[in-house]
Amino acid sequence: MIVPVLLVTAVSGIVSLSGAGLSASGWVVGITCGAATSLGLARARSHFGAAHLTPADWVTLVRATLATAVAALVADSFAHPVPVRTLVSLAAAALVLDAIDGWVARRTATGGLGARFDAEVDAFLILVLSVYVARSIGAWVLLIGAARYVFLAAGWLLPWLREPLPPRCWRKFVAATQGITLTIAAANVLPSAVNRAGVVCALILLAESFGRDVRWLRLRRRAMPAGVAVERSPPPASPGPGSARRRTRTVLSTALTILALLFVWTALVGPDQPIALKLDAFVRLPLEGLALIALGVAFAPRARTVLIWVVGPLLGLVLILKLINIGFVAGFDRPFDAYQDLRYVGFASQTLRAEVGQATGILVLVALGAVVIGVPVLMTLAVRRLARIAGEHRVWTLRAVAGLGAGWILCWALGAELVTQTPVASVSAASLLVSQVGALQADIQDRSVFARQISHDRFAATPASQLLTGLRGKDVLLLFVESYGKVAVRGSSIAAADDAALAQGDKRLQAAGFSARSAFMTSPTFGGISWLAHSTLQSGLWVNTPQRYSQLLASDRFTLTEAFDRAGWRTVDDVPSDDKFWAPGRTFYHFDKLYDRHDVGYHGPSFAFASMPDQYVMGALQRLELAKRKRRPVFAEVDLVSSHEPWTRIPRMIPWNQLGNGSIFSRRTVDTSGPGFHVGAFGGLSSSLKLNGSPAIRAAYGQSIRYTMTALTSFIQHSGNPNLVLIVLGDHQPWSVVSGAEPSHEVPISIIAHDPSVLKRISGWGWNNGLLPGPKAPIWPMSAFRDRFLSAFGPSPAVTASP
Question: Residue 138: which pLDDT band, with cuts at 50, 70 and 90?
Fold first, then answer.
């Protein structure tokens, strides 16, 4: 029979016209599979006594031809890339025809040949797709394609496996799921993690389906008397409504059990680090799970119930802690500390509402609250279901625990790993709880350590006459630029554009008679919690935890602000992103004046997190403080937040004389020169940035940094104040979606001045000329700045030469 070979040739022609072509290996595989299909079909017709092919058989034959063409493309992919769209389209067409030939078979006289032919074509297509997908996901995917053939091979050793099986809708559903899942994975249109999760779920369903069939055949074999030949199963009677309902309940029960197992498994073995968040990381043996199953089976029913209601909520808590820890490591480059970080829940909710809007923020918070409450409840129900099943099959459960326990010991002894630093022998749930207890102990011990550091202050008693003598008569601005990290200027895809903007800034400074010196500092925080960086620079202490921050605010530690105040400066805090009074500004920093969003006269729109553009912030500071006559010199700490994530609304520069009350920003809102911005349907500017992946996010972040640095250097040029001295630095690196995996905590810092004597005092620091720190620029801990700054600009007690 040569029909399949001819059809394969036709499909290969279509493949060639679509631009794929076929190499020799593709042609060999295609023609060989077509010939094998011809021979196999001829033998099957003889075996089943089929005089001719039915309409459903012809549809299946077309499916076989399409599957053969897919096999040819897969074989070709080992030699050179093939069009994925063509491969997926052929596979999808074969899957659609699978539903059609079933519909045709039910309406025509289709015998055993059609059912067997259909099953073999399904198995062949799944095998071919698994070979293709295994190259990108992992060799374990071949288990899906090999399952049918392993089952057939086992039938040669165990004849009872060759007996016919009763028809089951669930078996057909599982088979269809394999083809659909593998086709989606081959298309590679979903994230890699989603593809892996889908294929794993498909494999689990396949294992369950084959396992049920094997169990049915084994039980039927045991039920037959010894020496009695196994009879063929009679044709099944038409199922009534009751049997249909039972089948539905069975399917739902099986699905719920699988979901419960996956849920508990995720809590036990799921990683708590984003870098380990791979599907392979879930292929582990949890010692805690084996121990709990053994205890559950061994306990009496009442004790088992108590165990369930203790273990369930505890595992739910473990899963929540793992999810939060992944977020903290990705966002702040440190693990979650429940004792310290829970105190920031209120601030986090305020920040969320500021970024996404009040209504959306409330919905998100409600959803998060539902997760926090719902996960322990659902976990308890899942544990109860699994415990009930384990209790019903006590002997098999204990055997499985014993076997898996031996496997755990072997993997532990060998140090087996599928993912780097993720052992197969898992104790991840217990380790997480132990680490939280250890963190609590460390927090308690650190309180006394930090108290001694606070009390030891070499500058606290320095008289006013010896403080900041090298800056007398100067207005000193301490400017924290939100998320201005090393990634903005060194070693990233956005560094070139930002470096060019800094070079333009240097030209503006030179035109105004200013110069700059720059280096790097290591921030105590990452991705957020900026006040840790502010307090570290101000106090000269390493404030890297919420506990240390609270402890510092309760002390009388000598800060830069207090040094300027004692030496005669007017001290100002300018944080327009604050929407309410900031008490520590008075009680700890002792600023003479605090400006928040309500004090600077702004009547324009907000820009995502930022309540107003940085250009307006600097203009308001000039109007409210620096432009006044007959005043004391000003020391101002200013927080500039136009570069705060989510980087979806970035202002653009406008002429300084048009700032007014900021209402002009309602008409000229966003810079459209960067990536992601688009013009709306009516010609208006859209305020949304299309953040389709990390490159777009990094580009938007870089654009926000360029805007802020342009605003600063333009302000210096526009102000015409030769007595300005600016300390400009980042508070922390941006989130890892911008900074990348395993980022540093380094941020740029620059000191800008018109008076050459100011920069001369720091000539021994080794900082680079200009706004851009060089690749070999010094890197100081941020806590070293206060002492070295006070030493450089006034007589002081001796300090060490290096931080």
Answer: confident
Calculate the CA dihedral of residues 773, 776, 780, 785 and round it to 10 degrees: -40
CB 117 within 8 A of CB 41: yes
Which band of pLDDT confidence, cut at 50, 70 and 90, is reported for residue 615? very high
Q: 717 or 372: which carries more pLDDT confidence?
A: 717
Asked if the bond preceding 55 is cis, omega within 30° of 0, the reply is no
Is residue 443 within 8 A of residue 601, CB to CB? The reply is: no
Nearest to 279 by CA among 144, 123, 138: 138
Q: Which long-range contacts (CB under 8 A, 24 or more apart) does 693-697 make?
A: 694/737, 694/738, 695/493, 697/647, 697/737, 697/738
CA distance between the termini of the chain:
85
Contacting residues for 373 by C-beta, under 8 A, at least 6 apart: none
Phi, psi dihedral angles at 768 (to 5 degrees) = -80, 155
Q: For residue 727, what are the CA distances in angstroms to 4, 61, 639, 782?
A: 77, 76, 12, 13
Can you tell me the distance from the alpha carbon of 660 to that of 664, in angstroms, rounded to the nearest whole number?
8
Please name the helix (run of DSSP H) or strand (run of DSSP E) that holds residue 607, with its range, or none.
Answer: none
- Please choose, from the candidates 141, 148, 145, the residue with its C-alpha nearest in 3D space to the C-alpha of residue 195: 141
Counting other chains too, the contacts that 277-280 makes at CB distance below 8 Å and 24 or more residues apart are: 277/193, 277/326, 278/193, 278/196, 278/419, 279/137, 279/193, 279/196, 279/197, 279/200, 280/138, 280/196, 280/418, 280/419, 280/422
Give 274-297 pLDDT, tens digit per residue: 777 777 677 788 888 888 888 877
pLDDT tens by residue, 154-181: 777 777 777 777 777 777 778 888 888 8
With b for 16 or more beta-carbon neighbours within 10 A and e for fewer, the 349-365 pattern comes to eebbbbbbeeeebeeee
Polymer length of the chain? 803
Distance, in Å, from the CA atom of 66 to the CA atom of 107, rounded to the nearest integer, reads 24
Position 382, amino acid: A
